Amino acid sequence: MRILIQIISRGPGGAAETQEKIHAGDTVTFGRATDQVLQCNDPRVLLQHATIKISDERVGLTVNSPAQAAVNGRLCRDASLQIGDIVQLGPMLLRRLRTPAGYDAAFSLEPDPRSAVAVKDIEAPKLTLQALGWRKRVWAWVFFLACFGLGLLLPWSGLSGDGALLQSLRGTPLPADGQWSSGALHPAHAELELECEACHAKPFQRVRNESCLDCHSTHLTQHVTEGHPQVDSLMADRCTTCHIEHDEPSTLVQADTRLCTDCHANPAASGFDESVLAVTDFVTQHPEFQVSLLQASSQPITSAMAGMASPAPARLQRLRLDDPRLKESSNLEFPHKVHLDPKGIQAPTGDVVMGCADCHTPTMGGAQFSPINMEQHCASCHRLEFDPAQPERQLPHAEPAEAWRILLGHYSARFLEGYADPLATSAPNRRGTGERLSPQERAVRLGQARARALLVATDIFERRVCADCHTVTRRETDEGPQWDVLPVQLTQVFMPKARFDHASHRTADLACSSCHEAENSESATDVLMPRIESCRDCHGGEPGAAHSRHLVPGECVSCHVFHEETHPLWTPSAKALAQ
Amino acid sequence: MHQSMLDYASRRYLKIALLLCGASVIAYLWHDPISPPNGGTWLGYTLGGIGAALILWLTALGIRKRAYRSSLGSLQGWVSAHVYLGLSLILIATLHAGFQVGWNIHTLAYVLMMLVIVSGIVGVVAYLRFPEQLSANRAGLNATQMLQEVDDLDQRAERLITNLPIEIGHAVRSAREHTRIGGGTLAILTSRDRSQVELPAADGVIRLQGNDSQNRLLDWLGTQLSRSTDGELSRRISDLINIVAARRVALRRLQRDARVRGWLDIWLYFHVPITFALLGALIAHVVSVFLYW
Questions:
Q1: CA atoms of B7 and B13, how far apart (whole Å)
Q2: With contacts defined as CB-CB under 8 Å, which chain A residues touch B253?
Q3: What residues does each domain of chain B span?
Q4: Taking residues B177-201, what's their average pLDDT?
Q5: Is A46 at the interface with chain B, CB within 8 A?
Q6: Closest by alpha carbon to B288, among A252, A176, A167?
Q7: Which of B229, B292, B199, B245 is nearest to A178 (CA)?
Q8: Which of A105, A128, A258, A579 is deepest in the core (most CB within 10 A)?
Q9: Alpha-carbon distance B4 to nearest alpha carbon in chain A (angstroms)
């Protein structure tokens, strides 16, 4: 088929110019695409806008959705075009012309003069975020500078100089260096919360021990003495190895057993001799407890005539509770079993049932016990009477020389007064009061008194009173017999290297006897300290370990302290400087 | 066939991210520091280093996507890795912090990072959901053509109303002048149409009335048509109704287009600026930690 198409264009002055195009084919396509028969490069035109199909019967127009066309002013998608019909296709007008001879159809295509008329006086709707004023770059810079400047530069700049700027910054609502704190300090350090420089002395330098010692030098002690083989490695650790701040939950003393077992799991590697045993966990590997026993002096308090010397200081002996040599040598004769007899024990006031607390009285706070002493804890039963005729008269305790003098004086006076001696072999020799004795008679009576005093002293020292509790030996001298009493020296603190608070263990189901087997102890040489197994009934080791489940955690620091009281603070700085 | 950025290279970067997360979790569970877990343990420093490096690399996507001549991996690969490794930061940073938060610069950096990630997730969802809707709605038209379409219809209506009673002309013109689509962020994102039209109210006074989707105007023109007894007038009104209805379709297309593009865009207006806030806070975080070591 031959189709004639007149393309009319208008110049600037409105002059029309017609260009003829002959298309061979039965389909005329209209659109913006370059393969279209009628190409119109206008944004209002789709790539494939419309198609005109010519057959013998009709000339049919099809508009491709969503494109639109108006035939003679009416919108339509499909239409049969008659001669003279005008189709508006976007900005173009297509007319069907009378078919000239030799052609099958004819059209003209020209710009719609009305499409140039601006009817729009309203502005285009704002349909994008950018049109609404949304911007990325400017906000990116604003936010970056705000976070960087306020979060870092501002407080940092305050650090320069003497820090006065930082001080004043902290007084303003502006963010100061407090925002760098990753967590609250331990309540013990709460007053340093706004005084960062107290610990962070120099920028980019880790917290130094000196900062801690500024406050803590007066009471701190070391873990070891200065000559210890591990001094160097302990010095390499900083206070903050164990005392970590700004963490949550806040724990000033790290209880982790690894801090101790680092060295103590393998003492040999740390330079210890074999007496130091390995510890890895309270339950799985911890040596039997070691007690410090006083080895009471074997140098006696000498009696009577020779006068009295103060007891020699006791030696300390460290022994494990499973050591066969374990034996307390206090020089005291004391069977716990007798005193704790549930049926009672004979006392001047009748039978008395005694309990632990009768002698072991807790100190203030209940952690420890007051020392035992004769006057307070024994004397009410163990009376130091010597003369049944005068039971109110008692001998002084722990003063054998004085006791002898009292005995001698007592009986001398009695015999001079003509005291009837119920045990004396001679007949009573009474005279009236105020009668003067002849020197010979006085000598005889004083001799009788001395013999009497010796008899009583022998009875008291060796059989009846002193010997109840003390080890007394009789020594014959030229001046007569003497009695040596070994001094009693009781161990006050059995486990000085561990902390144990009796008060916190005093529960209804924990009697003293749960841990201390006193009821069956027949000798004062028995050490009644509990073995490690009785602690393990309730206490586990490292929290969370399988073997410690459902047990009270037992980290090293539950019982032991790192800073040993007996090791005063040696200054590491001098030693460090020397290296 | 189109391959989603999530499926790129058989989800290679998903596997890498999962591997990274798994390794971090295992290390975290195995690691048993003396102090509560925090950024200052060796694992804390390690995870922090990985996290900071990831953040810097993720930010570099903004550079890579502009470097058209770059041969450093395909852009789709970068985006795929960006999504998966970005998500893995949620875990890595949380483990780095040891679940410790507070009112400080460190948690600020963490919160900003989380905001960036959340906005990124919105972006991923938008990019998976909307592009199909966008092209389906546009039906081959581009943005200019969609506007031009409305313009064309306005011109046609304008020509028609010259031969119509004056009140009809006034109504149509006022509807055109008071067409309000877009114009605000919410209006764009919800396709709200605040158009109005001046029409005689019940009392006969001409008032501005709501004209959502040109419905009010169409109703009124329908009434005018039913009252018309003149055949020629009826034909013209009918033509006008067709044009207004076509205009309504065109306006809806514009609105839907704006809504979809709005959702495709808006997350990035948060993602990018907060990323830069994060960079500032991250630098402050890292430097301050060592400043007050």
A1: 9
A2: 66
A3: 5-137+263-291, 143-261
A4: 89
A5: yes
A6: A176
A7: B292
A8: A105
A9: 25
Picking from A93, A112, A121, A136 by the largest number of B CB atoms within 10 A of its own CB, the best residue to mutate is A136
- Has residue A315 got a pLDDT over 70? yes
* pLDDT band for position A308 (cuts 50, 70, 90): very low
> Three-state SS across A328-372?
CECCECCCHHHHCCCCCEEECCEEECCCHHHCCCECCCCCCECCC
Closest CA to A258 of A576, A551, A545, A49: A545
Residues B182, A143 contacting (CB under 8 angstroms): no
Mean pLDDT throughout B155-160?
85
- Residue spans per domain, chain A: 2-116, 138-216
Taking only the tens place, the pLDDT of each residue in A205-263 is 888 888 888 888 888 888 887 777 777 777 777 888 888 889 888 888 888 888 888 88
- Pick from B100, B139, B176: CB nearest A183: B100
Interfacial A residues in 198-257 facing B (CB < 8 Å): 200, 203-207, 242, 244, 247-249, 251, 254, 256
* Cβ atoms within 10 Å of B257's Cβ, excluding its own: 21
Report the residue of B34, B103, B151, B173 to disrupt the A interface, i.e. the one with the largest count of A CBs within 10 Å. B34
Question: Which tokens in the block code for residue A419?
Answer: 């005291």
Quickly count: other Cβ atoms within 10 Å of residue B225's Cβ: 16
**pLDDT (tens digit, 9 = 90+) per residue, A160-218?**
777 788 888 888 888 888 899 888 889 889 888 888 888 898 889 888 888 888 888 88
Task: Give the pair of three-digit tokens for residue B4.
Answer: 């989603």
Q: Which two tokens stand for residue B172?
A: 């149509």
Question: Is the peptide bond between A422 and the residue preceding it cis, with omega within 30 degrees of 0?
Answer: no
Arithmetic mean of pLDDT, B155-176: 87
Report the residue of chain A nearest B139, measured CA to CA.
A66
User: Does A249 sit behind a cis peptide bond, omega within 30 degrees of 0 on the bond before it?
Assistant: yes
Q: Is the pLDDT of residue A430 over 60?
A: no
List the single residue in B with minimal CA-CA distance to A126.
B183
pLDDT at A473 over 80: yes
Contacts of A142 (CB under 8 A, 6+ apart): B273
Contacts of B142 in chain A (CB under 8 A): 43
Q: Which CATH number fits domain A2-116: 1.10.10.10, 3.40.50.1220, 2.60.200.20, 3.30.428.10?
A: 2.60.200.20
Q: How far apart are CA A48 and CA B111, in angstroms?
A: 52
